[in-house]
Amino acid sequence: MSRTAGVIERHRDRLPFAPEDPVVTLGEGSTPLVLAERISELVGAEVHLKLEGLNPTGSFKDRGMTCAVSAAVREGAKAVICASTGNTAASAAAYAAKAGLRGVVIVPDGRIATGKLAQALMHGARVIALRGNFDKALELVRALADRHPIALVNSVNEFRVQGQKTASFEILDDLDGRIDALCIPVGNAGNITSYWKGFVEAGAAPRMLGFQAEGAAPLVHGHPIAEPETIASAIRIGNPARWEEAIDAMTASRGAIRAVSDPEILAAYRLLAASEGVFCEPASAAAVAGLLKYGADGAERVACVLTGHGLKDPDAALEQAGAVLPCEPQLRALERLVLE
Ligand SMILES: *Cc1c(COP(=O)(O)O)cnc(C)c1O
């Protein structure tokens, strides 16, 4: 298999695509699984990081999007549409551009990270800022896609789940099938649903440990949250589309869905960057924050899904990072700053 093959070509036997079907790919998937030495020490377990930020548009959404957009082309759709906290928009825009389809993305007004907005615009999508939160945006695009020949590529789209489950196959391959628990941030709950589906299909059953931000934790509280709030914009969702499936994944795997606070998320975010060399976005750090807070629960081998790249949200990073050091153009001055 070519190094550049995407998830459909790599896993066609386990995906709903025939050999003659059109494939819209940017070479997604096959992301690194990296041992996290410092975090392993802190947790007392072998902890691996699945670097999903290394997908073509910088998040795991590309795994599902190659499937959703390929299926849309197969069905003769003329446009794809999604409501998005950002990464789905960036991914849909890129794959629509690759397929030659119109891409339309609806983003909650003013609440999208800078990098994601830049991506969606650069890929030529029509970007619509809705005066309302994510949940309202999703409700409206669902109604729109019901009335027009437009493919809805949100995670309610079954092909998204199919594509995203391939990450489980990769983790099992890399760990020779031995994994006790998976830590994963939960927003709309499409990804936890997908991972569990992938594990079940492959005959594995690690505990699914999902983490939501405290201010956006409907699955933890057992009811929708009208005004979800968290620094982790990718999981700022108050009424997950895949609520039932997420609860099923948790129950069937004897896992848990728990909450972490924004300060805990940001601490993990900084730790990952400064101690593991991995720059992810705040939402991704929720998985590691949860593992650090609640422990490995007896698991010996854990994988944390780092869902998106840190460059997506430079503003969040700069608020957390130390200051730049100004220096006069003289050797003495430079020496002092470098050596002291
Ligand atoms: C979409 C997304 C999530 C949440 O995934 P769900 O499938 O909505 O639960 C988490 N982190 C990042 C970076 C995302 O883009």
Kindly state the number of beta strands.
10
Gap between N and C termini: 51 Å
Helix proportion range: 40-55%
Overall pLDDT, averaged?
95
CATH topology of the largest domain: Rossmann fold
Structure overview:
- The mean pLDDT is about 95.
- The protein has a 6-stranded mixed β-sheet with strand order 1-2-10-7-8-9, with helices on both faces. It has a 4-stranded parallel β-sheet with strand order 5-4-3-6, with helices on both faces.
- It is globular, with a radius of gyration of 20 Å.
- The chain has 2 domains: about 5-60 and about 160-320, Rossmann fold (3-Layer(aba) Sandwich); about 60-160, Rossmann fold.
- β4, α5 (about 115-120) and β5 form a beta-alpha-beta unit.
- It has helices spanning about 5-10, 35-45, 60-75, 85-100, 115-120, 135-145, 160-165, 165-175, 190-200, 220, 245-250, 260-275, 280-295, 315-320, 330-340, and strands at about 35, 45-50, 80-85, 100-110, 125-130, 150, 180-185, 205-215, 255-260, 300-305.
- The chain has about 350 residues and is an alpha/beta fold.
- The structure holds pyridoxal-5'-phosphate.
- Pyridoxal-5'-phosphate binds near residues 155, 187, 188 and 235.
